[in-house]
């Protein structure tokens, strides 16, 4: 996994850098230009991460189950879940107006189980 410095970029530098990045991407006119761009600015690991995320979006769009995506792409269930939230507009702080925050009273209520009870063999031993 790629490592990143914990030191944050200034908002001004971030804005200028993103502007340059988007203007550069906008100029890409062919697949070969895109390949050159990716090869110039991204490591093999960074490209692999992006490709797995894009493949996850495609598989989620097809309605594939998390476990199949996880096994096919060799990514964690958490990654699949985060990407699902991103494409639904809930991820990484987007659409904050849609989020529902619970009150202290709601937090004390019993939470619904995420997985149904196992209905397989009574004993695995």
TrEMBL record:
Region (Disordered): 102-125
TM ranges: none
InterPro entries: Trp_repress, Trp_repressor/repl_initiator, TrpR-like_sf
Matches recorded under Pfam families: Trp_repressor
GO molecular function, one term: sequence-specific DNA binding
Coiled-coil zones: none
Protein name: TrpR like protein, YerC/YecD
């Amino acid at each position: 996994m790629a490592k990143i410095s914990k030191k944050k970029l200034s908002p001004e530098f971030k804005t200028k850098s993103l502007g340059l990045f988007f203007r550069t991407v906008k100029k890409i006119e062919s697949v070969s230009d895109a390949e050159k761009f990716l090869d110039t600015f991204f490591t093999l690991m960074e490209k692999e991460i992006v490709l797995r995320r894009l493949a996850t979006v495609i598989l989620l769009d097809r309605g594939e189950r998390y476990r199949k995506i996880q096994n096919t792409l060799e990514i964690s269930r958490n990654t699949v879940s985060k990407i699902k939230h991103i494409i639904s507009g809930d991820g990484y702080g987007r659409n904050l107006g849609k989020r529902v925050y619970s009150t202290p009273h709601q937090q004390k209520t019993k939470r619904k189980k995420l997985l149904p009870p196992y209905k397989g063999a009574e004993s695995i031993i």
